[in-house]
Design a protein that fits this description.
By secondary structure, the protein is α/β, with parallel strands linked by helices. Helices cover 40% and strands 17% of the residues. The protein folds into 2 domains: 28-114, Leucine Dehydrogenase, chain A, domain 1 (Rossmann fold, 3-Layer(aba) Sandwich); 139-272, 3-Layer(aba) Sandwich (Rossmann fold). It is built from 10 helices and 11 strands. The strands form 3 sheets. The chain has a 6-stranded parallel sheet with strand order 1-11-8-7-5-6. A 3-stranded parallel sheet has the order 3-2-4, sandwiched between helices. Helix 1 packs parallel to helix 10 (271-290), helix 6 packs across helix 7 and helix 6 (139-150) packs across helix 10.
């Protein structure tokens, strides 16, 4: 059984990007610049954004973190995004989700200039993805593709089951796995909370992508021998015995499922790290496309 270690795969991606950044610097050009907007002080969001900033530093990218109170008015947030849209020194923009309830997530996503949409959530990016056109791939699905590529996981002709249909992970990864790309050409079934016979469907899968946000939902009786399991879930579960008072759990019960797999991602240390790698790749893409 192969553990698909996100640390190893992400390090390879960052090393490649660092080489590109060094070449830009040697040519007298500025580094790619990522701007992140963080609203409020959600613990998980703080952790994610801090990791993104750290990874920018390690790759030689410039980063700017803009903090706003969770009481910020929607119009002020949209104005902040517009200022970043207009700033030629900013290559990529991300707004850390989730947002406070009084702010429209859709309005915020659509406010980002599609040329700087390094999270890949803008309707323009998703539309191009569906049509197989060059675009920014949502960071988590992109990270999954990069992981499959690094560990040489074969997808052509395989049967993949995606559990979850979110616009951030489930829908785009199902499209990508079904696309005519090196890490695609799968037959794909997308399951949701209303899918009957979920266990029977999963038992047929060569590849299972679990992206539903329910800790340890996927159990060994749902996985056939030799399957590849990609766990996208990352949930904080209270645990008084843990130093921080919680533990991070994936959507897969790793200890019991892993022995049946040919390959599986851990949580933490798997897809989460590759999401940031995908984000950095998108930022470099934005830089190369938009800079004169």
């Amino acid at each position: 059984m192969l553990v698909l270690d996100g640390k190893i795969a992400a390090a390879a991606v960052k090393a490649e990007l660092k080489t590109q950044t060094n070449a830009l610097s040697a040519a007298g050009k500025p580094a790619p610049h990522l701007a992140a907007i963080l609203i409020g002080n959600n613990g998980a969001s703080e952790t994610y954004v801090a990791s993104k900033v750290k990874n920018c530093e390690e790759t030689g990218f410039k980063s700017t973190l803009i903090r706003l109170e969770d009481s910020v008015h929607e119009s002020e947030l949209l104005q902040t995004i517009q200022l970043l849209n207009d700033d030629s020194d900013i290559d990529g923009i991300l707004v850390q989700l989730p947002l406070p309830k009084h702010i429209s997530e859709q309005k915020v996503i659509e406010a980002i200039d599609p040329r700087k949409d390094v999270d890949g959530f803008h309707p323009s990016s998703i539309g191009k993805l569906v049509q197989g056109l060059p675009t920014f791939i949502p960071a988590t699905p992109y990270g999954i593709l990069l992981m499959l590529e690094y560990f040489k996981i074969q997808t052509k002709g395989k049967y993949a089951v995606v559990i979850g249909r979110s616009n951030i992970v489930g829908r785009p990864i199902s499209i990508l796995l079904n696309s005519n790309i090196p890490q695609g050409n799968c037959t794909v079934t997308v399951c949701n909370s209303h899918t009957p016979n979920l266990t029977e469907i999963c038992l047929q899968a060569d590849i299972v992508i679990a992206a539903l946000g329910k800790p340890e939902f996927v159990l060994p009786e749902m996985i056939k021998e030799g399957a590849v399991v990609i766990d996208v879930g990352i949930t904080r579960v209270s645990d008084d015995t843990a130093k921080k008072g919680f533990r991070i759990k994936g959507d897969v019960h790793f200890e019991s499922v892993a022995p049946k797999c040919s390959a599986i991602t851990p949580v933490p240390g798997g897809v989460g790290l590759m999401t940031i790698a995908g984000l950095l790749k998108n930022t470099m893409q934005a830089y190369l496309q938009n800079r004169p």
